[in-house]
Predict the 3D structure of the following.
Amino acid sequence: MGLDQQSLEKRLNACIGIPMGPQRSWDPVNQAMIRHWCDAMGDTNPLYTDPVFAAGSRHQGVIAPPTMIQAWTMPGYTNRLAPGSGGRPENLENYFELLSEAGYISVVAVNCEQTYFKNAHLGDAIYNTKALESVSDRKQTALGEGYFITELWTFFNQHDEKVAEMRFRLLKFKAPSAS
């Protein structure tokens, strides 16, 4: 834990706003994944699963549930990225690892806010970029001392049209020692 607080915070703040990616989907938006999502969520909206109904709607075809936007670009258990995906720029430190090096090794998801701009249609190739949006001052929480970090994920389709934004907030913290 060789990082002092001031150095840590300076290095974290230097990461803010630098985009990472793109992270591409392995597969285009497809009916099978939509059906699995709807089954898991108990969502029976026919716009998502009934091609005849959806064709007669203003959408003129099946659309994906907006809340599943992140599912299209997730790398899965192997953490392999889809072809054409980019990573972290060379000049950008891994802020997650920086916090771990400083002893903030525990993590909990705090909240997720999504804003939708366009529907994802069957066949769309979704990709996202992500950037660290903010880092809080060091906070003392019930879980322990830590930092709230907020990432801004922006999702696009194959036409580079913005489909959604997601703010994902985490707490990286030092859990109190067990006595």
Notes: The CA atoms of residues 104 and 174 lie 5 Å apart. The mean pLDDT is 94. Strands lie at 20-24, 106-116, 127-135, 139-140, 145-156, 162-174. The first strand starts at residue 20 and ends at 24.
